[in-house]
């Protein structure tokens, strides 16, 4: 059975040491090669089954993460198809970014139980195991139904519907204009049409851009608190955790020296990791903690860099300042209640986002929140706002956006309406996948409800 | 008491456009065929508009012709004006539409039937079907005659329990004053076939001398005429013009004041009318902001003064019809010859049919045309052709033919009917086909003639001509891909005048043809080696090159669909027993009984998770078979 290349995160959606992105299907290894830059220079396609390669995954803006890629050749894989797997650092943001790069390289998001389904279809699982899968799929479709129902009322649905409706009205107009040439239907003007399509394109692009921000709102942003020892990191952590109703979950600190908590800072979810202090050390145990802190820095969506206002900047502080260049940092100057000895203007010149607090006096939290909101560009969007919730929705929306760009190109290049309309229908079809309707029927309904046509 | 009148392979009930195609196809394929009609004078009648084709309908006629059907040839022989609609909107939606001489069309088709070997034509009303153990055995007529038949095709149009409504008056009748068929309904119901009631309507026919044509806009035919049939080679002539008129506020006022006299608005008719073909009453009520509606005055033929008023279908009383018609500019002294009316009739639910158009419940019994819930001559003819082919093949022990959505409008039409059903009379439209860039009227032969040849409806001679045309297209596409074009002043002047970029360096001829702003013929002066080719070949070269990217994309969608269509589903499958399917999906699947997973995926109410479940179930079955 020929099938599309599918991909998904195969490890649980929780912070862990490692995240695995599995890609399966004929051509899976080629898809993986499109995003994988191997350290050895040898592509994955040149690898035999059951081998691994070290390298990095790239998306359109650059490297995402260092990964170990494992190659399985059909039929010797879980699904029985060609499979490539990327093992990357376990942060949710990183694994998702890797997945998105893979999807952009031509894979489709795997449906619920789809790897297992393929494993069965390719004879890798027994009948009883397959029946269990059937149940899983049935269960997840009910879940999907529930999700769809709630999504029906949601802002995302309204947003998508708004875009869909405007495209449908164009497509319906073209359909009526084409199918009823003898009725007095206003000609379809390409300038006017282009305007509507451009507007829809902008809206979809905004929605795609808000994908990361929307997820931050729902799932939190991975936050690392750094600073030299005794600067007040743990106090800040405790302060944040001490907010009323702030502790949402207690995630076990894994086996390593990272304590994680999810904190709700008045609507902004922070997945907090307090790390060992950053300083040059020869202590083996502590060194491990420092390396870990540095490693987590690279994957963090937000860094809170803590400085002590009551002492001048030390060489460690300067090292940290250099290390943090270009990262999403809010500089937090603690101990604002003590005498100021730090060169505060220097810090301000280094960081766009800056706040003074006194962890001990419990002050400055609101200002900190404001800085975080500005940094994450969460202004103006809320948990109730329209946002794409998962990779499937993101994929549909991205496909719709790409197709819409093509439709606009078709129109502007001077192609005839038949080609424009077919291109437009594929956009609507991708959007209606999110809402579960069908495109041809929708256009036909448009024609009859809006245009006076007859024989 | 009944008496035996012998046997035939295929019996066709009704000699409208569905019945004619069915009977001709069956007989030409070697099946001994009898065609029953209420009146021999009504064969291939055009009881509504005197025209054939139109958007998407023109595509259907070209496809019927490409498969070896009758309608295209008959229309070419009897057309009196022709237009290619939608020029400028793209080749996928160019549509032929021709005004037809109604009596000439009848005469031409009747003669064709009379000359056909294996075909008998019989004037009688069929009042019953003979069924034994779920298999058709023959038919019975009003006179008591019984004919044994291995296959029967019902193509009763709007005649089955036909009831005409004009204002507050209703009476049993078929169209054009022909008696309705009254016996068959009860008999079909006895055999478990569910019938429902649909409605349609037609405008009045008026006397030509009573129209002041100076007040109307003339609409001439297009020159040169593109024929419907790929077989027609001699040039065709436009002989008449149509005219355009408009309703006005006074027209609308009279209609609105008399709405209570319309059987639909007064609630006397409950049958479901076509959305696409509303009466003038409907248009005025639903689109009350429109100050006027357009209508066309179309001649009914060369030997008559009757004119058809397209756009003015109505079921208002005759006196109201006269009153509102005379408010129209140019119609002040209008003389009605046949009044407008609404007609109700019995039809089946096409969800009870297979894509072969055979009833699932009675093997050997087929439905075609308006009886299946469609509307329009072309839709009827398309189904008649497929039903006729399959009925003949069944009696000969051959596999049935079904057309896929990606092959044709005919396939799309039938798939829509048997997969989605219809809640009002179904009309073909280009927007119903997701593959319309592939299913153009200009390439119907490329899509279907090989199949027509394989079935046996396309002659060897015609097939060879077709192959030669395909070869010419292939060669010319290859040739222009190798022709170098250098920039020149003349060429750049042409390019600029068409609003496209000048040439700076040399390029290939095919790249220029691909530009949307240029035509193949425009570039002849820059292509000295260009061979002499027919319009049909030049047109294909241009379209195939220009729309190559879009055509390739649609082809990928077709391939994806074919993958799902390759997964066949057993017809006797009880979907209630498949665990994992949602309740709604089980009900819908049991109702439609799709033939493959592709069709299942188009049923509304069946979602992708259900399709996954079906695929897994299928694999399990195959796995067990192999064990």
Strand line-up across the major sheet of chain A: 3-4-5-6-2-1-7
The class by helix and strand makeup of chain A works out as alpha/beta
Computed over alpha carbons, the radius of gyration of chain A is: 26 Å
Taken from the alpha-carbon principal axes, the silhouette of chain A is globular
Task: Examine the secondary-structure arrangement and name the CATH architecture of the domain at 205-341 in chain B.
Answer: Beta Barrel
How far apart, in Å, are the first and last alpha carbons of chain B?
58 Å
The helix fraction of chain B, in percent, is 25-40%
- Contiguous runs where pLDDT drops below 50 for at least 5 residues of chain B: none
Oligomer: heterodimer
Write down the CATH topology of the domain at 205-341 in chain B.
Elongation Factor Tu (Ef-tu), domain 3
CA-based gyration radius of chain B: 26 Å
The major beta sheet of chain A can be summarized as: 7 strands, mixed
**Sheet/helix structural class of chain B:** alpha+beta
Question: In CATH's first tier, which class of the domain at 205-341 in chain B applies?
Answer: Mainly Beta
The CATH topology of the largest domain in chain A turns out to be Rossmann fold
Summarize the largest interface: chains and residue counts: A-B, 57 and 62 residues
State the CATH architecture of the largest domain in chain A.
3-Layer(aba) Sandwich
Proportion of residues in helical segments of chain A: 40-55%
Q: Can you count the helices of chain B? A: 19
CATH class of the largest domain in chain A: Alpha Beta
The main sheet of chain B comes to: 7 strands, mixed
Keywords:
heterodimer, A: 455 residues, Gyrase A, domain 2, Four Helix Bundle (Hemerythrin (Met), subunit A), Rossmann fold, 3 domains, seven-stranded mixed β-sheet, 14 helices, 14 strands, 19% strand, B: alpha+beta, Arc Repressor Mutant, subunit A, DNA polymerase, domain 1, six-stranded antiparallel β-sheet
